[in-house]
Here is the input.
Amino acid sequence: MDTSRLVAALDGLISQNRPREEKVFLGLLKQVWRVDWTVAPYDVWTHMIEGDVPYFARVMMFDQGDEGEEEMLKRDMMIMHLNPGTRYDWRPRMMGLINEVNCLRIDLTF
Here is the structure.
């Protein structure tokens, strides 16, 4: 599948006025979907909240040309993971966002 429509749609969501945590999630999801659009958003979210840098590093290995963005996303993910002030208050909102991007993926692939 040509993932350019998914990536463009995610770029549109990222450009909206959203909390930093949501933008980081959407950016990580965009990186993953560039490589494998079948990965569930929930899986990306669980790797994000676990601070699973090796997972994202492996995925990003396959994508060339946006290393600066990739490094910033990994750094922001780790800052969120380590900052106790942002660890839990944003998580309930993420379920709605995960549902939103699931619907987006379905709409654009069928």
